[in-house]
Amino acid sequence: MSLKIGVHGLTSCYGCQLKMASVKEIINIARNFDIKYWYMISSKGEIEHVDIAFVEGSVTTKEDERELKIIRENADILVAVGSCAIHGGVQGILFGEEYEKAFKEVYGDKKIEYEAEISHPIKNFVEVDYNLPGCPPEEDEIIYYLATFALGSYPEEKDYPVCSECRRNGYPCVLIEKNDCCLGPLTVAGCNARCLKYGISCIGCRGALEEIAWFDSLAKTFKEKNMGEEYVKSRMEIFGKQYEKMEEMLKKVFENED
Amino acid sequence: MRYVKITNEKIYDFLERLKNYGKLYAPVKISDKFYDRKEIEDVREIAFEYIRTLMPAKKYFVSPTEKMFEIDIEKGEYKETLENIEPFVIFGMHACEIVGLRILDGVYLDKYPDIYYKRKRDAGIIVGLSCLPDEYCFCNLTRTDFVDVGFDLFLHELPDGYLVRVGSPNGHKIVDENTDLFEEVDKNDIDAFRAFEEKRQEMFKWEGSFDNMRYILELTMEDEVWDEEVEKCFGCGNCTNTCPTCRCYDVQDIPDIDGKKAKRIRFWDSCQFRGHGLVAGGHNFRGTKRDRFLNRYICKNAYFYGLGTSYCVGCGNCTYFCPANIDYLKNLMKIRSMTEVKNG
Ligand code: SF4
Ligand code: SF4
Ligand code: SF4
Ligand code: SF4
Ligand code: SF4
Predict the structure, then answer these.
(1) Which of A165, A167, A173 is the best mutation target for the ligand 1 pocket, counting ligand atoms within 8 Å of the beta carbon and taking the most?
(2) How far is the CA of A184 from the centre of ligand 1 (A)?
(3) Residue-level pLDDT at B344
(4) Average pLDDT over residues B237-256
(5) pTM higher than 0.80, yes or no?
(6) A217, B255: Cβ pair inside 8 Å?
(7) Residue that finishes a domain, picked among A97, A125, A150
(8) Domain count, chain A
(9) Using CA atoms, how far apart are residues B34 and A172, in angstroms rounded to an integer?
């Protein structure tokens, strides 16, 4: 019996779904899984009970929240796919007053159809069983997650930083060599250090490691390399704004003038 | 031991001929500050002046990622993936790294040899190269600054060439099959060799003994000198991944999409990662960054019975490649209250 799956998108660029739909083995996914809902592949289908629901995108409207709850109620396993779903995504950068200001700038006093909110990761509303990180996720991990579920097992999430893959591939360290603001040390591995392959420092698109992203230690080194608070913060915030401890950790480093 | 000499005029011929014995790997400059070993096409690319490589030579024996088994899930069978391994030559290993390999031998080639490691080890020819230490080197403290075994040939720099120590049957074979490249060592060469060794000893920055380091470390683990260093650490694992004697790996089974077949892979792990100490049931033996940070210091300074040295060979890689600028040796010196600097 094949597993029933659904793939859903909330507020996002739909890149994760597109990546999932364009993997080399898409035919084998279609053969081995019973796809109940996947808007990008077929406009047919309604939300019904599935074994596994994959959800990309963050919650930024009331409608997202309602839909997410229905998806959760109808899924035995729920997988958050990509940075938007897991951490609120780039759109999660706007918070509080900044959000109000930006909203006014874009919409002025116009009335809009939906009720917009600050971007939230889906874990703020429903229980998430697994995270499939990436912006978008990598092909091998998409297959790995599906394949382990199909076997009745579960995927092992990576719990170590991009540096591990940077080193295994022998890419020169741009933080040491060029004093670049590389966020590899606090970012979840899995991309095989994609950017470092081209000597471009990591911007943290796969999201920070839960509990072990040492924003403070890294900021301390950046500070010693004469990078300013604003610069460091603006880079870390792109994908890290939703980490409660980030601001506090940065404050500790930059306010402590030694 | 047999000693011969090769002159500078013949060194590139020699390197070219090494290719007859297998694929040639040697250090080349890969970026502004770093060197790494690569397969060599043009022997003139080889960087004789290198001190350390971004990836230790262990990468040729314990691959950063390698396939171990192919698994047939339906039949419930597995077989080891023993890919064909071609002979290869690693040129230019310094003494510390050769000792490092022997330490890996002690771990991987015990009563139950690791077949993947052994097959590569059997296929590899090691050609050592003398070196002058930089400020990060301290192999004199760990007593790994000179090797007597573990290489096939070892080249010591002379003003006009190299004094070659022949260290194995393979080494003899290479010399015997290329007698036109080598000549006898004369008195001038011996004097030059001695002078080089003396100069080298004088260049080391620190002196003292490391032998009781492990115990002092264990006794000072609670010490607050560690607090600040732990605070600085990213937990990025660069220190262990660039260490010639770190040998921890993780294993993962990766099934195919149709669930019929799977492969088991292994890849370099690090005790600086949280998952390293995690066991079934969710307990973590090294649950805090401090536990993980100190684990490396304890592990590297343990006593390796096989050689009577510590697991640390004093290469300085872990400091040089730490993006947080954490100085492993200085930290050890702090708890030993050793400050003497011989030549500054
Ligand atoms: S370049 Fe970035 S990812 Fe690579 S080792 Fe350095 S800090 Fe880590
Ligand atoms: S290196 Fe960093 S920014 Fe680049 S793909 Fe990986 S996680 Fe994303
Ligand atoms: S390389 Fe440095 S920062 Fe990274 S884990 Fe090792 S000691 Fe910590
Ligand atoms: S612990 Fe550091 S100095 Fe010692 S062998 Fe490893 S990398 Fe070299
Ligand atoms: S426990 Fe840590 S220090 Fe020891 S060999 Fe493993 S990675 Fe290296």
Answers:
(1) A173
(2) 5
(3) 45
(4) 97
(5) yes
(6) no
(7) A150
(8) 2
(9) 7
